[in-house]
Amino acid sequence: MESIKDKVAIVGMGCTPFGELWDKDPIDMIVDAATEAFEDAGVEAKDMQAAWVGYTVADTAMTGIILSSALQLQFIPVTRVENACGTGADIIRGATLALASKAYDLVLAVGWDKLKDAGYGGIGQAYPGKWHPVYGAAPEIGGAVARYALAATRYFSKYSLSPDEGKRMLAKISVKSHHNGARNPKAWLQREITVEEVLNAPLIAWPLGLLDCCGVNDGASAAILCRTEDARTYRPNGDYITIKGATVACGPGWGKERLTYDFTTWEETEAAGKAVFEMAGIKDARKELSMAEVHDCFSIAELIAVESLGICEKGHAREDIESGAWEQDGEIPVNISGGLKSFGHPAGASGGREIYEFYKQFQGKAEYGSRQLKDVKLGLTHNQGGHPGNFVCGVTVVGEPPSS
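-> structure tokens emitted (404 positions)
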């Protein structure tokens, strides 16, 4: 199997602020994100040879036509992607593979969602009255927060943490994320919080309280990609990034049925991480990565994702959290953007938004609020859809261009 490492570059990116964008419809958000990306790369919509668009809510649209209509693309192929919360990673992967195959020279990838117009809070129940791979027409089998709460309580038990120790550990993750998000102008919740506020927040599903959970909202992100040999045409100073590896792993969906499933390892994340590290030639992720943006829909999700990716040894996240290893000046900054916890999660847009953070960090343009990291060379982004035992996971590694 031929490697895609460094064959494709991202030469322009855009991202809307995330939030309750009541004054924006999907067309507005797509145009805003894509316009920033076009201007960043010095190109126009007419220059695109193909496009990918990702979103999860079908109430507003069901095809790629929404992208071609919004941007007045002229009869080019537009591929609509829906892969739950892994959608953002998958549109970048699709665009990357098309360029690597030399089918196109310059393409666009846009992810968006407008969940605040859905008419209900949260993301609904898992498979309510719909087909389920095991049960067929499924009963109500629980929402995402309940499934992640099971992961948290199992983690506490497996690694001998008392309820108070476990909740405080998770609270410190939320505090860190809000600290980072408070310094990010495009984050939704730009507010510092304390450990005590997290501990005293209303419970949603014990041990997860309101401040352990990310919100769903509205937003869009966009990327312009080309083959790496053409990147300096658009960015002559070399401040573009290249794809080191991109993959998606879908599990067989039997976690809830297997007696051996213990909820504390994301098997799909392990598989995707292993595959993408092999693509990128990464031997020691903790030492080689400059930063990681992981899917922190809940505080426990960040913790188990970091362990499942091998960035932290399993069962030792508490030591990293207490030492500040995942903070800005720590050994491996995690969710320096503020993560889903501060941004919220319009599912189709989150994957591109994570890459946008690395892109700006690499260019030295994340200086707002002193969020800028030093010597940024290699980053990982992680998207995960579904719930423990039944995930689709996308992992992408991006980094500095290869030396010529």
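The domain at 8-120+215-399 is CATH 3.40.47.10 (Peroxisomal Thiolase; Chain A, domain 1).
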